[in-house]
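Example 160.
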Amino acid sequence: MGHITISLPDPEATRALGARIAQLSPPGTVILLSGPLGAGKTTLVEGAAQALHAGRTASPTFVIAHSYTGAAMRISHLDLYRIEDPRDIEDLDLSAYIAADGITLVEWPERAAAERWPEDRIEVDLRLTGEAREARVTMFGALETAIALADIRALSDPLV
Ligand SMILES: Nc1ncnc2c1ncn2[C@@H]1O[C@H](COP(=O)(O)OP(=O)(O)OP(=O)(O)O)[C@@H](O)[C@H]1O
Ligand SMILES: [Mg+2]
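Predicted structure in complex with magnesium ion:
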């Protein structure tokens, strides 16, 4: 598993990372966003949505999923924070929320057992470092060869 660590000095950098990941992800990619409360998971989703011209994102705290249509590629945004009872997760058909024709970003993926997520996925672990944040990005499965980690790191380079 290849991984990189990227420092994110401000929310704009978190959004830029989300944009970068969205632009490099093939349709069907699942992106698991881990990290404590306030780590920047929703901020990263905002950047992904902006990059795919999906407009502004609302955090789906009170619903499980938001789907953004009208975007360059469908974005499915799941937030499992409120599903605290493991039995509720077991009953949930996660595949119903995963967009085959777009990207799926998941906050609080650890609410579900790890084996419930597809093998081909990106994991982003966000950590608080003082006022700033740090992201560790790991590619799994086919994405390890499909996406160059160096391309993800180059946050400020224009994509062609
Ligand atoms: N790199 C960064 N440096 C400093 N602040 C940041 C950074 N990225 C995001 N933030 C800020 O952190 C705060 C929390 O961000 P956000 O809501 O995205 O967190 P979250 O991980 O989704 O939290 P929750 O677990 O509650 O859903 C926001 O005010 C956001 O602007
Ligand atoms: Mg959030």
